[in-house]
Structure formats: structure tokens, C-alpha cells
Amino acid sequence: MEAYHIYCNLKDGVNDMEFAESVSVYLSKLKERGTISGYRLTRRKLGLGPPHLQEFHLIIDFENMAQMDKAFETVSSRTDPIESFHHAVNSKVKDTTFALYRDFPDEYRKCGQEKF
Fold first, then answer.
1. Edge-to-edge strands, sheet with 56-62
2. Quick one: which H or E segment has residue 109?
3. What is the torsional sign of CA 13, 8, 32, 82?
4. Using CB atoms within 10 A of its CB, is residue 77 exposed (0-12), middle (13-18) or buried (19+)?
5. What angle do CA 83, 84, 86 make, to 5 degrees?
6. β partners of residue 8
């Protein structure tokens, strides 16, 4: 499983619930198309967290890199209806940071191998 992490703050004047709804609509459309496996939106609680990380954290799950590539192809086409859903999210955020993680150990990492 590949986990694409997006950290962001909201632009001034953006309503948090409108942002959450935009994320839900956008990523639900991608999930319906089979280009993502799932997603989760979280928000910093009680101000706890490292100061360099933003208030909102979005995790998008992919079965593998091929599925992730398909999602990026879909979004990068910049065609509607996906483009309008993407814009509805992207236009509300600032200070974005991205990261890509994988389950570990995964099917490619061999555990218990002899040391060379």
C-alpha cells in the first residue's frame, strides 16, 4: 500500500467544513473511478504537533504505484469534471507539503535474509 500525505493550511476566510466537503466530493469521485483505494482527512487537535507541519493532514491510499500513476494521469488531464473538483480543494489551501510513504515491510522487502 502506498500512502500519499498532504499537509496544508486553509487560506484566510476559507470555511473548514466547506473544505472538508470539497475534499470528500473530489476524492470520492477518484475512488469511484478506482484511481485511489481510500482517503482520510485529519486536523491537528489542541494545537499539538510539530510547528513545521500544517493544521490539516490528508492521507490518500493507493494499492500500488500503478494505481497512483493512474490517479495522477486523471488529475493532470485538467479536464472536467475532475478538474473542477480538484480546483475546489486546491483553491482553498496554502502552505502545502507532500510526502509519499509505503507499508513496511512490504512485499518487496525480504525479511530474515542473510547478511552479506
1. 38-43, 56-62, 2-10, 93-102
2. none
3. positive
4. exposed
5. 65
6. 56
Task: For residue 4, name the pLDDT band (cuts at 50, 70, 90).
Answer: very high
Q: Where are the domains of the chain?
A: 2-42+65-95
User: Who's near 81: CB < 8 A, 6+ residues apart?
Assistant: 29
Q: Hey, what's the cell of 89?
A: 480543494
Residue range 8-44, pLDDT digits in tens: 999 999 999 999 999 999 999 999 999 999 999 999 9
CB 60 within 8 A of CB 39: yes
All 3 cell numbers of residue 9?
493550511
Q: Shortest CA distance to 29 belongs to which of 75, 78, 65, 68?
A: 75
Burial 20-47 (b: 16+ CB within 10 A, else e): eebbeebbebbbeeebbbebeeeeeeee
Cell (9 digits) for 5: 500525505
